[in-house]
Write a structure and sequence with these properties.
The complex is a heterodimer. Chain A is α/β, with parallel strands linked by helices. Chain A has 14 helices and 5 strands. In chain A, strands 2-1-3-4-5 form a 5-stranded mixed beta sheet, with helices on both faces. The longest helix of chain A has about 30 residues. Chain B is built from 11 helices and 13 strands. The chains are: A alpha/beta, B alpha/beta. The complex binds adenosine-5'-triphosphate (ATP) and magnesium ion (MG).
Chain lengths: ~375, ~325
């Protein structure tokens, strides 16, 4: 491995890539478009009625009954009920990935009847601004109505706004790391399969074999280039997710190992698929056969924890699962131990594929 | 002189097809060697074996003292190659391509000087995809020169070039030879081989029909030299009578075969003695092309070629 030659090859490859407008568009704009698309789908789906978990600690109380009736009549919230046994509602919401809830205190009806003020706790997630707004607005309006109907004292029953204890993740949050994983998979896989076919057809591998450039150096420069592309598109996707959909995923240094190793893995796998096949057509078929199942089953578009146990088991043998799980661990859960395990798995698989690709790929024919 | 290339009994098969069928030849260091042959003769196949791009099926090959297949990476630092159809990265310019090769070979190359040398400097900043066929070929030559190779393999370097561009490539080849480099050239252009090559081998159907200097091949396989003069049909008749040699007449042109130099003088005296008008005396000699067409043609017609095969390259197919 000679860094000077890797740099020279990187320079030539990068220039060629950047000058190919269509390729560049697909590498950078495509993931952003997907985020916009899925973001739009998820937000539209969630905006019809906001799901709210109600913990009524004053069951059967006159005022609490009436309050719930008013809430229900608004049709803007879809209520589900839990009782006192679930304990602290905030932790309940967090553990279930829910974004809104309210607690009616035990002495609610008694205090209103005694003309004493009583607060209803409203949990919302500031990250989900529109849901939070709807919930707070509807709850406040319902309390005002209750006051007017029961006591004619406007502020007897009042809302206490609380944020949910820790960030709560929705599909849009999982979407950002998932789609970064999607890009790490598809962009190098498709490109390398294509590249091997064209280079073989145009006899460019032979041309290069007549220079001191080695196969390892050539492959390394491709990996480097796709790492650069991945870094740029990951930054773009996180920014778009944050700005437009208030997704929770944040840029962090912890992403780096996954961006780098994940790209390393799929450039190698793409090269391997392109090399073991004889014709460009079979290479494309093999490439798709590897890419598509992995694309849907590794947590790209939907979180793996929502899968059935059988599908979850399948996901766990797919290399992309560990890339996305790792990204989730650093971008959402802040779980370094899990991230480290994932990183080691990705590193191991990458090395295997890299060495296999180097063995399978020939500059020249026999 | 030491040998740059030594080939003995080389055979290369593609599946059932025997593209090269047991050939032997040597290329002396510092010389220009031309491989002539019709389409599909096995030229490119041979060259690719010599370059280490294909493995020989049988026989032994030594290039600069190395085995091209197993010692390829060492060999590739010392040779330059233009493949038959040179392709490069579509979006890259000749200037960038030369700089890239200079970096790969770790040569402090002056990009402009190399492009100047192959007369491509004006296209330095054009993308490869926008170059003409001839310009692409010139870039191939430029890249082959970056590493200052001892030995160059040029597979049809001038095919598709206009006469001007072809001559500029010839100039480069001559200059390379003057610098002491060895050049292995394949071509369809007989004129090119005759002008540039110290030695020529004619190959067809994977066998070498003959090899040697262009002159020796012409002397061996060409028809005798001829004297040509303009005159009436009676002149042809008179010459046939007085010399007893074959004479042809065609539209005011008389052509007589001559054995040696002294016969030219006798012929001209006979023409003068006939009292008939004559003018425009020229001598005609078979070109390599004439010989090539006859040799390759006779093979294709399936004639017995035993006579055409020098010892060592002979044998049935
Ligand atoms: N990769 C290959 N696989 C199978 N057959 C091949 C291959 N390359 C060449 N051949 C066959 O080998 C024979 C010799 O081909 P080669 O390319 O060496 O000829 P050539 O003398 O260079 O011809 P040309 O003047 O057209 O370039 C031809 O019959 C050709 O069809
Ligand atoms: Mg050829």
């Amino acid at each position: 491995m000679n860094p000077r030659r890797i740099a020279a090859d990187f320079g030539v490859f990068a220039r060629g890539y950047v000058r190919n407008r269509v390729g560049l568009f697909f590498a950078l704009a495509f993931p952003v478009i997907i985020i916009l698309l899925f973001g739009a789908i998820y937000t539209t789906a969630g905006s019809s009625t906001a799901p709210v978990v109600v913990q009524d600690l004053d069951p059967g109380g006159a005022s609490s009954q009436q309050f719930l009736a008013i809430l229900n009549a608004s049709h803007d919230l879809s209520l589900s009920f839990v009782n006192a046994s679930v304990g602290n509602l905030s932790s309940y919401l967090t553990s279930r990935g829910l974004t809104a809830g309210l607690v009616i205190p035990a002495n609610f009806s008694a205090r209103i009847a005694a003309n004493q003020s009583a607060g209803v706790v409203v949990y919302t997630d500031p990250g989900q601004a529109s849901v939070a707004g709807t919930v707070q607005g509807v709850v406040s309006a319902s309390l005002v109505e209750l006051n007017l109907e029961r006591t004619h004292t406007p502020s007897l029953a009042y809302p206490i706004a609380r944020n949910v204890g820790s960030p709560i993740f929705t599909d849009i949050d999982y979407l950002v790391p998932g789609l970064i994983g999607f890009t790490i998979l598809t962009s190098p896989m498709f490109a390398m399969v294509e590249l091997t076919a064209t280079y073989r057809k145009e006899k460019l591998f032979r041309q290069l074999s007549l220079t001191p450039l080695t196969r390892g150096e050539w492959l390394s420069s491709k990996i480097l280039w796709y790492v650069v592309l991945t870094l740029i598109s990951a930054a773009l996707m996180v920014s778009v997710g944050d700005l437009l959909f208030s997704a929770h995923a944040r840029l962090s240094w912890g992403m780096l190992p996954f961006l780098v190793l994940g790209t390393f893995l799929f450039v190698s796998l793409g090269m391997l698929s392109g090399s073991v096949t004889r014709t460009p057509e079979t290479a494309a078929v093999v490439g798709n056969a590897i890419t598509f199942p992995m694309m849907f089953l590794s947590g790209t578009f939907f979180p793996v924890q929502e899968f059935s146990p059988a599908l979850q088991a399948v996901a766990k043998v797919l290399p992309l699962y560990y890339v996305i799980d790792g990204l989730n661990s650093v971008m959402l859960f802040n779980d370094p131990t899990r991230a480290l395990t994932d990183a080691l798995v990705v590193l191991g698989i990458s090395l295997v594929f890299f060495l296999a690709a180097l063995r399978a790929f020939r500059w020249r024919d026999e | 002189m030491p040998r740059a290339v030594e080939v003995r009994g080389l055979v290369k098969e593609y599946g059932a097809l025997r593209a090269v069928n047991g050939i032997d030849f040597d290329v002396e260091a510092g010389s220009v060697f031309a491989f002539l042959g019709p389409n599909g003769a096995g030229k490119t196949t041979t060259v690719e074996v010599l370059e280490g791009l294909r493995r020989a099926t049988a026989g032994s090959v030594s290039v600069l003292g190395l085995d091209p297949w197993s010692q390829g990476s060492e060999l590739h630092r010392r040779i330059g190659v233009i493949p038959q159809e040179f392709r490069f990265f579509e979006k890259i310019t000749p200037g960038e391509a030369v700089a890239y090769y200079a970096a790969l070979f770790d040569r402090p190359t002056l990009v402009d000087a190399v492009l100047e040398r192959v007369v491509l400097l004006d296209k330095k900043n054009d993308r490869f995809e926008n170059l003409s066929g001839g310009q692409k070929q010139k870039l191939g030559l430029a890249l082959a020169l970056v590493s200052e190779p001892e030995l160059l393999f040029l597979d049809e370097p001038t095919t598709g070039l206009d006469p001007h561009a072809r001559r500029s490539i010839w100039e480069v080849i001559r200059a390379l030879r003057r610098e002491g480099r060895t050049i292995f050239l394949t071509t369809h252009y007989l004129e090119e081989a005759q002008l540039l090559a110290d030695r020529v081998a004619i190959i067809d159907h994977g066998r070498i029909l003959t090899s040697g200097t262009a002159d020796s091949i012409i002397a061996e396989f060409g028809r005798p030299d001829r004297l040509r003069l303009d005159g009436p049909p009676e002149l042809a008749e008179a010459l046939r009578r007085t010399t007893g040699r074959p004479v042809r007449y065609d539209r005011g042109r008389v052509e007589v075969e001559v054995g040696g130099r002294e016969e030219f003088v006798r012929l001209l005296s006979a023409a003068e003695a006939s009292g008939l008008p004559w003018s425009n005396v020229t001598t005609v000699r078979d070109s390599l092309e004439d010989v090539f067409v006859r040799l390759v043609g006779s093979m294709d017609e399936g004639e017995v070629r035993a006579a055409a095969l020098p010892s060592g390259a002979g044998g049935g197919r």
